[in-house]
Design goal:
275 residues; 40% helix; alpha/beta; 8 strands; globular; 8-stranded mixed beta sheet
C-alpha cells in the first residue's frame, strides 16, 4: 500500500475552472466581514474537480493553507497557482483515502510540512450505478471503501492530531441526499452515504468535548462531473453551483466556536430528487 505522493501543483479540470476562479471570485470577501481562516490548514479530499476544487479555492480565498488530495494524479498537476494566488501555502497529494497506511501518512505529512491541521473535509466519493444482481463484491467494497472507510480513517487520524495539539478543529463529511432517501440501482452508494451520515453524527457527539466540531453536509445535486458525466440527460439548470455549496461550508467554518452545526442541508431550488 503506497504512501501519498506530494506533487507541486493543483489542478482544476476544464469543467470546473470557472467555479474555482471566476465564480468563487464573484463572492466578495468583504461580505464576510473580519472573519477569516488565515493561519489555519485545511485538508480536502476529492479536490481535483467539482465541489472539492471549488471548496479549495473558497477556503484559500478566506486565508486557509490548503492540502488538496485526490486519487487522480494528473488533474493535480496544474493550477496550484490559483490557490497560491490568494497568498496561502498549498500542496497536492495523490491519495487513495481508503488505504489505511496512505490515509495515516497523509495526515502525518500534512502536520509535518505545514505545522498543523485545523480542518478536514471528507469530500471524495465514488459510485457504481447497477442493480444488486449485477453489482460485484469488488464494486461494492470499492464504493464503501472510498465513501465510508476513507472518512473514518482520515477523521480518526485528524482528530488525534487536533486533540494532541489542544486547538479547536473542524471535520466536515460531505454526504448527499442519498443519505436521506433511496432510489434503485444505487445500493452501495446509499449504504455508504447513510453510513457516513451516521458516522458524522457519532463523531459530533464524541468529539465535542475536545472542541472539535463535526458537520455532515447533505448536498443536493450539483453541476459537477460526478453527476453530469454519468447522467448526461440531467438538466444542469436544475442543479446547483458547487461554489454555492462551498460558500455554505465556508460559513460553517467561520461560525463562532460557541456553536456547531451537526448537519447542514443544501438543495437546489428546482431539483426534484429531494424531497
Amino acid at each position: 500500500m503506497a504512501e501519498p505522493i506530494v506533487t507541486d501543483a493543483f489542478a482544476i479540470e476544464p469543467a470546473t475552472r470557472d467555479v474555482a476562479a471566476a465564480e468563487v471570485g464573484a463572492h466578495d470577501a468583504a461580505a464576510f466581514g473580519a472573519a477569516s481562516l488565515r493561519g489555519k490548514v485545511a485538508f480536502i479530499t476529492g479536490a481535483a474537480s467539482g465541489l472539492g476544487a471549488a471548496l479549495a479555492a473558497m477556503l484559500a480565498q478566506a486565508g486557509a493553507d490548503i492540502v488538496a488530495a485526490d486519487l487522480r494524479a494528473e488533474p493535480l498537476q496544474a493550477r496550484l497557482a490559483i490557490l497560491r494566488g490568494y497568498g496561502v501555502r498549498a500542496e497536492a497529494l495523490t491519495l487513495d483515502v481508503g488505504d489505511p497506511r496512505a490515509a495515516h501518512a497523509a495526515i502525518e505529512r500534512t502536520v509535518d510540512r505545514l505545522g498543523r491541521l485545523d480542518i478536514l473535509v471528507n469530500n471524495a466519493g465514488t459510485d457504481v450505478t447497477l442493480p444488486i444482481d449485477e453489482l460485484s463484491e469488488q464494486e461494492w467494497l470499492r464504493v464503501i471503501n472510498t465513501n465510508l472507510n476513507g472518512p473514518f480513517l482520515l477523521a480518526k487520524h485528524a482528530a488525534a492530531h487536533m486533540r494532541a495539539s489542544a486547538t479547536p478543529g473542524d471535520i466536515l463529511n460531505v454526504a448527499s441526499t442519498a443519505a436521506k432517501r433511496a432510489w434503485p440501482n444505487a445500493s452501495a452508494y446509499h449504504a455508504s452515504k447513510w453510513g457516513l451520515l451516521g458516522l458524522s453524527h457519532a463523531l459530533h457527539a464524541e468529539l465535542r468535548p475536545y472542541d472539535i466540531r463535526v458537520t455532515a453536509v447533505v448536498a443536493g445535486g450539483m453541476r459537477t462531473p460526478f453527476l453530469l458525466d454519468r447522467f448526461p440527460d440531467l438538466d444542469p439548470a436544475r442543479l446547483q453551483d458547487p461554489a454555492t455549496v462551498a460558500l455554505a461550508i465556508r460559513q460553517v467554518l467561520l461560525l463562532p466556536r460557541e456553536s456547531v452545526i451537526p448537519e447542514l442541508t443544501i438543495l437546489p431550488m428546482q431539483e426534484t430528487s429531494w424531497p
